[in-house]
Design a protein that fits this description.
- The chain is of the alpha+beta class.
- Among the domains are: 54-261, no CATH class; 471-650, no CATH class.
- Strand 9 and strand 10 form a beta hairpin.
- The chain is elongated, with a radius of gyration of 34 Å.
- The model has no long low-confidence stretch (mean pLDDT 83).
């Protein structure tokens, strides 16, 4: 074995603790990178395969009622390759032994003309299910159905299970024939949240569904595929023109289809997180490598001089230190790949609860692993090249000469007139002031660790804030009831007579397209009371917004997309009922967190539409414990299309979305804690290596082990004290930057950092400092005074 290789093994043994901590930091970066980007890769691959397999459509449209013969003329629209029509209805679902408010989306399948796009994939079916169609109405009057997998699993429905549906005012029995998946409902839920218990999709015989709703020879849903090179915008405009007479001006591209939009948004968020957060980890790893190698070189000046005097050239010595760096990086890379593979599989398990695919395998693609290896190598080179270059430039004679002693002087505190400081404190302050750059880097490293802990816990703070704001400040009702068609507002009085109802508040939702110049954006125009109490308009700062007069209020993100300012006039194309265009003045904007919303006082909305005092939904406040009776009572009201419980929504939020974010926050916080320990431990160990001669001299002069240790630990404590406020500010800056980058049409993360997060960050850094101090104190106690004093100064 070559002499330099033996020296390498000796250095690795002596630096074992530092090697391991730096490798763990590298592993955190590699693991975070592979976890997020492998999940992105799996989501995109599963999506693309399913879309291709199921022939997912390119354009979607809904109408009130249109003749089937219209499909032939739509196929002649330039750019349209194929057209498929069907019937779909939203109904109330009843489950045996449960009073839960459940909604079902019924979708008809024509056995004579099987679907050519948006194909349904059966995951489990009864033995008699051999046809690509659920089956005709059974002799006992039951309707065979396929049910979406997420709902079936949540409600433990298997082939043969029975439930009821309120179809056009009449209760029907449904029998589950199979469990299915569809590319239209990869993400199935209401109001942007996966709702596995309260929302299900049911595929049913179209002939029976048409007969129940008097839709024979007609359709109300339309899907199209486009020809290669087709102008999507031109096709949508032409479809809107042709479907307008049938009450169908809402035509959307695949990018706006709810399931696809949620999936695409998640992929984009994960790409961002998988780039930004590992980048921070790699930057800290590069900093640690630079500090360790540069200070190792400083403590091995005589060894380097001896090696050069013995004939080792610069390349050999540089290669020796590069090998040391390579071993550290290789250990970190291997640990990171194993960690990323395991965490990536766990993350996909969480995603599988919200996004449903026929196949959802996890894999570490070779290009992704190679990219992580290349990034890790680049990090190592950037962190160590300058230190290694310094060894190459070091002449033997200069290296044999001890470094010039530091110039000590009175500290800044002493110069400011604060005398009487203990000797140990003055020694700590003078040593830190003697090398301000090194001190600054040490404080910056600890501050970066503090910031990462703050960032890790921010997501938990944000989801808790969102839940509190939405379910305590915004949704002050208990149940929402909505009707098949807008009804006179006096129906609210009828609801007030139902069991347990304390208060009722009216609303109306109208689908619209907002137009300003050449900019267009779909939205829901919500008509509410001027000062609503049960469903309030609350911004991200928990301030309520009041509606007044005929003025329009928009989410600030929506106003920005339309390039609108307060006082501007916006054109509103109504996508419900007869064709109408309104001109409304933007009165105010509100920074709410969910969606791109538009608000108008309800009576003003009805006046603008030229209609009577109508409402389409009612928020109800209930006496505690009366919800089951209320939900049962609404089942027998023919004009009620559905009811939804806030408690069910909150439970679903806690079970899936909030839980997943908290798990990811915990993982990120763990990575941050590893980095915190790595930074503090390495700083302290290097300080001990540099000052062993000085500490040994103090011991010989009569200082106790505790007094000698206090010099190092005092420097550590002061560095942590300086780093904490700096890290808090840096963490808040990281949070602000990340929330801005994560902002989307569907969601706005609030910039909220709770005091408990700052306390946790301080506790985490304090624990890392105590652990590092304990390890260093043990080394000070075992310090070989003779060996240390032999070192030249």
């Amino acid at each position: 074995m070559r002499a330099l290789d033996r020296k390498l093994l000796r250095d690795l043994r002596l630096l074992a603790g530092q090697v391991l901590t730096i490798a763990m930091v590298v592993a955190s970066g590699v693991g975070g990178l592979l976890t997020t980007l492998s999940a992105v890769d799996a989501l995109a691959l599963a999506r693309d395969r399913f879309y291709a397999q199921a022939h997912f459509a390119d354009v979607f449209a809904s109408v009130e009622r249109a003749p089937v013969s219209l499909a032939s003329s739509l196929r002649q629209v330039p750019g349209v390759a194929d057209v498929q029509t069907t019937t779909a209805q939203v109904v109330r679902i009843g489950l045996p032994g449960s009073s839960d408010a459940v909604l079902g989306q019924l979708i008809g399948i024509d056995r004579r003309q099987p679907p050519r796009m948006n194909l349904v994939t059966l995951r489990g079916a009864s033995p008699s299910q051999t046809s690509p169609w659920p089956g005709a109405v059974m002799d006992d009057g039951s309707w065979p159905v396929w049910v979406s997998e997420a709902f079936a699993n949540a409600r433990q429905l298997r082939p043969g299970a029975r439930l009821t549906a309120l179809i056009n005012g009449r209760e029907r029995q449904l029998q589950v024939r199979g469990v299915a998946l569809s590319p239209e409902f990869i993400f199935a839920g209401l109001w942007g949240m996966p709702d596995q218990r309260g929302f299900g999709v049911f595929w049913i015989d179209q002939e029976a569904l048409d007969a129940a709703y008097d839709m024979q020879g007609a359709f109300n849903r339309l899907a199209l595929t486009l020809a290669p090179g087709a102008d999507e915008r031109a096709v949508i405009d032409e479809l809107q023109r042709r479907l307008a007479r049938y009450g169908g001006r809402e035509v959307i591209a695949r990018a706006d289809q709810p399931s696809h939009a949620m999936l695409d948004n998640e992929i984009q968020e994960q790409k961002l997180l998988g780039t930004v957060l590992p980048g921070i980890f790699f930057a800290v790893a590069a900093f640690l490598l630079h500090v360790v190698i540069s200070r190792l070189v400083a403590t091995q000046r005589e060894q380097i001089a001896a090696l050069k005097a013995l004939g080792y050239d610069n390349a050999a010595i540089a290669g020796h230190y590069l090998k040391l760096v390579s071993v550290i990086v290789l250990i970190g890379l291997l640990l990171g790949v194993a960690l990323g593979d395991w965490l990536g599989a766990q993350l996909l398990g969480l995603y599988a609860e919200a996004f449903r695919f026929p196949e959802f395998p996890h894999r570490l693609a070779p290009p992704l692993v190679l990219g992580a290896a290349a990034l890790t190598t680049l990090t190592a080179l950037l962190g160590t090249l300058s230190a290694i270059a310094a060894t190459v430039r070091l002449a033997p004679a200069e290296a044999m000469r001890p470094p010039a002693p530091g110039r000590y002087r009175r500290t800044l505190v002493e110069r400011l007139g604060l005398s009487g400081l203990p000797t140990g404190v003055r020694m700590v302050l003078r040593h830190m002031e003697r090398r301000p750059l090194r001190t600054g880097l040490s404080v910056a490293g600890v501050a970066a660790a503090v910031a990462l802990v703050v960032l890790g816990h921010f997501f938990r703070d944000a989801i808790d804030f969102i839940v509190e704001t939405q379910f305590r400040w915004v949704m002050r009702h208990d149940v929402v009831v909505w009707t098949l068609q807008p009804v006179p507002d006096r129906a609210r009085l009828e609801l007030l007579r139902l069991p347990g109802v304390r208060a009722a508040e009216s609303t109306r939702l109208v689908p619209v397209t907002l137009i300003h110049g050449h900019r267009r954006q779909r939205s829901l125009l919500r008509g509410s009371a001027a000062w609503p109490e049960l469903s309030r308009i609350v911004d991200v700062d928990q301030r309520q917004t009041r509606l007044s007069g005929d003025g329009l209020v928009l989410t600030d993100r929506l106003a920005t997309k339309l390039d609108l300012r307060v006082g501007d006039t916006v054109e509103v194309e109504v996508l419900e009922g007869r064709p109408r265009r309104l001109r409304l003045v933007l009165q105010a904007t509100v920074r709410d967190m969910m969606g791109l919303n538009a608000y108008l006082e309800r009576r003003a909305l009805n006046r603008a539409l030229g209609e009577d005092d109508l409402s389409g939904g009612f928020m109800l406040s209930l006496v505690p414990g009366s919800e089951p009776a209320l939900l049962e009572a609404t089942r027998h009201m023919p004009r009620v299309a559905g009811a939804f419980s806030k408690a069910s929504m909150l439970r679903n939020m806690d079970e899936i979305s909030a839980r997943n974010i908290r798990i990811m926050s915990t993982v990120l916080s763990t990575f941050a804690a590893v980095i915190a320990f790595g930074v503090i431990y390495n700083n302290t160990r290097i300080a001990l290596a540099e000052r062993s001669w000085e500490l040994a001299s103090l011991r010989v002069l009569g200082f106790t082990r505790g007094e000698v240790s206090a010099l190092l630990l005092g420097e550590l404590a002061l560095s942590v004290a300086l780093a904490l406020p700096l890290g808090f500010a840096l963490g808040l800056g990281l949070v602000s930057g990340l929330t801005t980058a994560l902002q989307s049409d569907q969601f706005l993360f609030p910039v909220v950092v709770q005091p408990r997060t700052y306390a946790w960050a301080a506790l985490c850094i304090g624990a890392a400092a105590v652990a590092s101090g304990w390890a260093v104190r043990r080394r000070v106690d075992r310090l070989d005074l003779v060996a240390a004093l032999k070192t030249r100064e």
